[in-house]
Description:
Blueprint: E1 2-5, E2 15-21, E3 28-29, E4 34-39, E5 44-48, E6 53-57, E7 64-66, E8 70-75, H1 119-128, H2 146-151, H3 173-188, E9 191-199, H4 201-218, H5 224-238, E10 244-247, E11 250-253, E12 259-261, E13 263-265, E14 268-270, E15 273-274, H6 282-297, E16 311-315, E17 334-338, E18 341-348, E19 351-365, H7 371-386, H8 388-391, H9 397-400
Helix pairs in contact: 5-6, 5-7
Amino acid sequence: MLEMKVPSPGESITEVEIAQWLVEDGDYVEKDQAIAEVDSDKATLELPAEASGIITFKAEEGDAVAVGAVVCLIDTDAEKPVGSETPKKNTDTKPAETAKAEIAEAPEVTNYATGTPSPAARKILDEKGMDAKAVKGTGRDGRITKSDAEHAVPSMGTPGDGERGSERKKLSMLRRKVAERLVSAKNETAMLTTFNEVDMGPIFALRKEYKETFKEKHGVGLGFMSFFTLAVVRALELYPDVNSMIDGDYQIKYDFKDISIAVSGPKGLMVPVIRDAGSLSFRGVENEVKRLAIRARDGQITVDEMTGGTFTISNGGVFGSMLSTPIINPPQSGILGMHNIVERPVVKNGEIVIAPVMFVALSYDHRIIDGRESVGFLVAVKEALENPTELLMNNDIKTALEL
C-alpha cells in the first residue's frame, strides 16, 4: 500500500487545499495520471499518481492538508479491471446551462380611465411611454387631462414571488491569498496613480503592415503586449527607481527587468513573469506571452513562473475597461494599467482629427518613487508607443521584427 503525501509546491508554502478530485474514491488509477487539483496560496497544481492501483481518499474536497501529510492511499497490488477503462471523474469544463430566472407575471393594471386622453395629454403619455389605461382621468366623464398626464408616474411593477436564492462558497486558497495581498498593498504602501493617454495610431499602422508576415514567419501574432513590454523596459532603464522595491529601511534596485503580466485564468487572476524582458525581441516577448497565457489557462502554471517579477503590466482593456487605478503587486513598486482603445477627437497640428486613443495608468509606491520619476516614467512609455519605429526599433523595422 503506497501512501501519497502532499509534495511541497514551493518555498514558504506549508499547506494546500484539495480543490477537486479528478477521480472517484475506489477507482483504479495509472501512474502519473492526474488524480487531483490542489490549491496553494500561489497557484493551482495537478497532483499525479505516484503508482498504479486502487485509490482510497484520505482527504475530501475543500480540506486543507499540510505539506507532507498523507492525502490518499494507492493499493499497488490491485489489478486493473479487465476490459474496462480507468474510471475518471467528469471534469468537463464546459459552462453549465444558465438557469432561467422565473419572473412572476405582472398583475393586470386597473383601468382607471373611462374616457380618452386629450391630444395634449396623449403627446405627454407617448413621451413617457405610458398606456392611457394606466392613468386615472379627472376630466369630464373620466377624460384624461394634460395635468393628469403630466403628473402620471410610469408603473414600476410590483415585487414578484420568483425564486430568490443565494449560495455560500468557500474561497480558494489562491483567491484568499490574492485578497490578502490586495488589502496589504492598499494598507502598507503609499500608493498613488498618475494617468496619461497614448495615440495608438503608429502601432496600428505597423501591425496592419507587418502582422501577417510576422505571424507567417514566427507562428505567433504581433500583439500590443510586445510594444508595451519593450516600452516599459526602456522606461525602467531611464527611471530605475520604478524598478525597485522597499525592504524595511532599504531600497533594493534591480539591473534586470522581470515583467509580470496579469492573466485571467480559470482559478482567478494569475501573474506569470517574463524573465529578462530587456533581452527579448518582439518575437521573444510574443512567444513568452503566448506560452504563459496558455499555461495559466490550462492550470499548468507553476509557483516559480509567478514569483520574482520587478514590475507588472495589467491589461484591463481586453474586458472593456476605459480607465482604472491598478493595485500594486507587492513587493513591487509599480504597475502599468492598459485600457481599451477608442477612437477619440484629438488635436494635431492645430486641427481636430480622429485617432485610436488608449488611457494608461501607473500606480506606484510613493515611499520610494517621487512624482518626477512616476510622471517621467509614464511619459517615456507614451513616447515609445507613439514613436515605436525610432525608440523601440532603432529605425529598422524589419530587423526589429526579424523579418
